[in-house]
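Appendix B. Raw example, untouched.
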Amino acid sequence: MWGSGEPADSYYAVRPECTDVAKSRFKIRAGKTLSARKWQTAFSPEGHLDIGKTLSRIQRGGIHPSIRGEVWEILLSCYDPKSTFDEREQIRQRRRTQYARWKEECCEIFPVVGSGRFITAAVITEDGQPIQHPLVILETNQDKGSALPSEDGNSADSSDAEAIATTSEIIKKLINRGPLDKKVIQWLLTLHQIGMSDLCSPMIMLLEDEADAFWCFERLMRRLRGNFRCTDSSVGVETQLSSLAAITQVIDPKLHQHLDALGGGDYLFAFRMLMVLFRREFSFCDSLYLWEMMWALEYDPDLFDMYEESESASNKAEGSKGRAKSLRHYGKFERENMKNGAGNSEAPLPISVFLVASVLKNKSAKLLTEARGLDDVVKILNDMTGNLDAKKACSSAMKLHKKYLKKAKKT
């Protein structure tokens, strides 16, 4: 299916106890995969990158694992491809300093940061009131071997009492800071968000410096942050799920009607795919390959300036992107949006929505004949885990995108 080539799995160590890891379909193929040599020759002596040639190569065969981290930094607009080696190094050092300062501030606000521990429950309410959740007590005191408090609220032993006291001290420090700044509250509300680790962990693996991995993740979250904005009344990814429903209704009305009749008209069964960009549906190597294909297809050279200058970013987001660059500097998906005038009044849909739509379209016959309830829908979609072809998925998404734009124009 993928042709001959070097298996990519060998570049990522797997713990001995993990025996059920899905094998990657992605293979490193000479002449197609962006190699270290091709990457180096894409730069001028000063460091200017031929982004058009680079995007073309990535779209054909992905990125060699040995250079994946540094190429991702370009794809995610951490750096401007027109910049020089020296300019990028200056930005890198400035960001590392900024990251160290922010990390120190975060440690002062919530000492769990930087400790190697993690939390899976909220530590604060939306109005800034601290929460002393039993799970937080356990997770913030793992090194003390603490257990959860007993049901009657009394400590089971002295280690419990010590754990509660330690966590109470953290909470007390929050309270003593006085009314918390809105940005601090928003940050604290994200500490337990499920899904972000799926997006961040590959960057920690690919980039040696923690600060560089953070900035790569920060750029990705600028695209995806809306997916994680959840309240008591709405799910952050709800907008994309609504768009997915609209696309399916146009492309495959029978399937949409069937899903709606089963009670799946809200498309929540696709929540995970959109939330963590198919991280659970593909093997580890294939999910990385899928991501870089998506980012290459969506690449917009204007994003670096938009991210760096927040004021001009908001102005451009409202309508007037400067399009002075050559079209070859943009990804194929972005070029298609430009050609069809998408984004003039509102932001165009990301390719991930069309990827999910293409998967549903591919499974349409099976869903129509075998799904008699939402459990069946979930099972049919779960059965494809590890069996998806990343390159074919992107190709199908591109075709579906064109088809949708044509049909949407007629309606």
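End of appendix B.
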